[in-house]
Write a structure and sequence with these properties.
Layout (H helix, E strand, L loop, with lengths): L7 H14 L5 E3 L2 E7 L3 H18 L4 E5 L2 E6 L9 H15 L2
Helix pairs in contact: 2-3
Keywords: Lyase
Protein name: Putative pterin-4-alpha-carbinolamine dehydratase
GO molecular function, one term: 4-alpha-hydroxytetrahydrobiopterin dehydratase activity
């Protein structure tokens, strides 16, 4: 599937939809789709990262993330299009599903 860089109004619309469907914690920071996930402990945070990594690799889409103990900060952008695309929102939805499974 080919993705394209979304226009600002498309990003706002997709962000509103994502937040309506999920936890309302997603935002645009530094031009990237961003969220901080908080888990009960390091084991759950690392398990989440592992599941996300396996899925992301299959999608050839790799998040920027930072982990300290039970917190995983995610930033998504589609490097191929130099901005945010639907590929980022698709991965965000999958991450939400994986986080809720823990």
């Amino acid at each position: 599937m080919t993705y394209r860089k979304l226009e600002q109004h498309e990003i706002e619309q997709a962000l509103n939809q994502l937040n309506t469907e999920t936890s309302e914690d997603w935002a645009i920071e530094d031009g990237k789709l961003s969220k901080a996930f908080i888990f009960t402990d390091f084991q759950h945070a690392f398990g989440f990262m592992t599941m996300c990594a396996i899925y992301a690799e299959k999608q050839d889409h790799h998040p920027e993330w930072f982990n300290v103990y039970n917190k995983v900060k995610i930033q998504l952008t589609t490097h191929d299009v130099l901005g945010i695309s639907h590929k980022d929102f698709d991965l965000a939805k999958k991450m939400e599903a994986l986080a809720s499974s823990l």
